[in-house]
């Protein structure tokens, strides 16, 4: 049987309190016992000194004992006395001892004769007691052994033990009730969170946890979980849109391919006609391949699979990207210029960084005017803070119609196109800027459309970077 967390918490609290309470009760018992026996020993020494004095209080009569009964019903501690010679024989003793031989062992008797006066536990007539031996003064030495029975003290200790045991049991019972109540109260917010989480797990993604009433651990956890649920909801919505958009984008080329094939197969055609149809189908398949590759790259970037990064020359990577779009720019008489210095470097992966520049330059060419221009510039910018690294800032500026303010963030969404017809003519997938943003953020940077630009569009890319004296081996 598996216990609930509340029951386990209560049991652990009960166990911890039980151990502490047991140690405390044991300390109380041991301390009380030590104090009582110390007091008993003090009484015993006082009584022994009195017995020693009374044993020799009549000069000429030798040593003797004063034993007499006290009338009345008052309780007195039972004492017992033995007068023992040096050889260990009992000269006289209390009547209640009868014919009991010397109680003190020979070694203790020798210590008493040497004036040490030890105190020891003894057993007399089946009863426990404490005893001390004192030596008499005179020509013949004797030991007056005086003892007190510890029956009453042991009875008191047994009563104390039962009392402590009762207090221990009652305290544990009260602790169990209090612990269960406290655990239930403490875990009530967790139970509500669990119930709401179960509803969310069943598909109610709009549900949220109750707002925290205080800034304690539960409150901070609730706020953090609500933030996580908001992001999860956003990710689910984005993935749904992504799946819908991807299926729509793939459906177009597939529909076109099937249409071309169906029309071609309706009647016999010559070789030239078949080659034209196959070329058209091949073009559609290449578009689908590009789209699939972009989708895979976007997924890998979103999963934050950070590639090995190194010092990369921005001028070299940008030059390669300019060469890749040179043909597209030449078709529309668009000039591309770069002012990046060879010493400007970024800490990134060269292949992925080129993909960012390819997408930005292709976007700048596609949404430019015929005969326009694309200008690339860069600089090194120091970041505030003692431990903050410098940033390489790159601007890609075109002379196109610009992007409306309301669309400056939306252009980074998947499959977002400001001019769908032009993008389809040039073969764009609508994922270029989304991929660029994911890759730049993977490197710890940022990409945005600069506001306040009067004509054209300026994309700004910020990457961790610096300057390098020798960049020939950086790429």
What does this structure look like?
The structure is a single chain. The chain has helices at residues 5-55, 106-113, 151-201, 217-265, 271-302, 314-331, 350-366, 420-425, 432-442, and strands at residues 79-85, 90-93, 119-124, 127-135, 142-149, 310-313, 335-338, 344-348, 373-381, 391-398, 446-449, 457-467. Strand 11 (446-449) and strand 12 form a beta hairpin. It has three domains: 1-57 and 77-207, 2-Layer Sandwich (Beta-Lactamase); 210-305, Orthogonal Bundle (Helix Hairpins); 309-467, Histidine kinase-like ATPase, C-terminal domain (Heat Shock Protein 90, 2-Layer Sandwich). It contains nine helices and twelve strands. The radius of gyration is 50 Å and the shape is rod-shaped. Mean pLDDT is 81; it is low at 420-425 and 470-475. It starts with a helix and ends in an 8-residue tail after the last strand. It has 475 residues and is an alpha+beta fold. Strands 6, 7, 8, 9, 10, 11 and 12 form a seven-stranded mixed beta sheet that branches. A five-stranded antiparallel beta sheet has the order 2-1-5-4-3.
- The total strand number stands at 12
Terminal CA distance reads 63 Å
Low-confidence stretches: 420-425, 470-475
What is the helix fraction of residues, given as a range?
A: 40-55%
- Supply the CATH class of the largest domain: Alpha Beta
What is the domain tally? 3
- Helix/strand structural class: alpha+beta
Q: Can you name the CATH architecture of the largest domain? A: 2-Layer Sandwich
CATH topology of the largest domain: Beta-Lactamase
**Percentage of residues in strands:** 15-25%
Largest sheet: 7 strands, mixed
Number of contiguous helices: 9
């Amino acid at each position: 049987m598996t216990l609930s967390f509340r029951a386990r918490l209560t049991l652990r609290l009960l166990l911890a309190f039980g151990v502490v309470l047991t140690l405390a009760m044991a300390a109380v018992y041991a301390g009380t016992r030590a104090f009582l026996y110390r007091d008993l020993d003090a009484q015993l020494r006082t009584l022994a000194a009195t017995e020693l004095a009374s044993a020799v209080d009549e000069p000429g009569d030798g040593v003797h004992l004063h034993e007499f009964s006290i009338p009345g019903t008052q309780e007195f501690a039972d004492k017992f006395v033995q007068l023992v010679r040096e050889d260990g024989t009992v000269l006289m003793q209390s009547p209640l001892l009868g014919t009991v031989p010397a109680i003190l062992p020979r070694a203790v008797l020798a210590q008493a004769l040497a004036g040490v006066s030890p105190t020891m536990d003894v057993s007399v007539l089946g009863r426990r007691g404490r005893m001390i031996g004192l030596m008499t003064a005179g020509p013949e030495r004797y030991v007056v052994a005086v003892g007190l029975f510890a029956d009453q003290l042991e009875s008191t200790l047994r009563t104390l033990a039962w009392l402590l045991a009762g207090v221990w049991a009652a305290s544990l019972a009260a602790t169990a009730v209090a612990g269960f109540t406290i655990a239930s109260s403490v875990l009530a917010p967790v139970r509500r969170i669990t119930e709401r989480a179960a509803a969310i797990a069943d598909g109610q993604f709009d549900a949220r946890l109750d707002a925290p009433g205080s800034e304690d651990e539960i409150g901070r956890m609730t706020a953090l979980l609500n933030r996580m649920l908001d992001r999860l909801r956003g990710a689910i919505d984005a993935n749904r849109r992504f799946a819908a958009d991807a299926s729509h984008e793939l459906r177009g080329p597939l529909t076109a391919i099937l249409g071309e094939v169906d029309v071609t197969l309706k009647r016999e055609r010559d070789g030239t006609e078949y080659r034209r149809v196959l070329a058209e189908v091949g073009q559609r398949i290449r578009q689908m391949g590009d789209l699939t590759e972009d989708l895979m790259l976007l997924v890998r970037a979103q999963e934050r699979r950070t590639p090995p990064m190194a010092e990369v020359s921005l001028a070299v990577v940008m030059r390669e990207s300019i060469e890749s779009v040179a043909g597209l720019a030449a078709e529309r008489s668009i000039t591309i210029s770069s002012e990046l210095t060879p010493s400007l470097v970024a800490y990134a992966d060269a292949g992925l960084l080129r993909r960012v520049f390819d997408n930005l330059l292709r976007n700048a060419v596609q949404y430019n005017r015929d005969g326009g221009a694309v200008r690339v510039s860069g600089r090194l910018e120091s970041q505030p803070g003692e431990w903050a690294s410098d940033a390489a800032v790159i601007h890609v500026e075109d002379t196109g119609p610009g992007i409306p303010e309301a669309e400056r963030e939306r252009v980074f969404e998947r499959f977002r196109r400001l001019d769908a017809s032009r993008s389809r003519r040039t073969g764009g997938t609508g994922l270029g800027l989304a991929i660029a943003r994911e890759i730049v953020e993977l490197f710890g940077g940022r990409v945005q459309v600069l506001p306040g630009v009067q004509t054209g569009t300026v994309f700004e890319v910020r990457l961790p970077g610096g300057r390098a004296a020798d960049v020939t081996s950086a790429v």
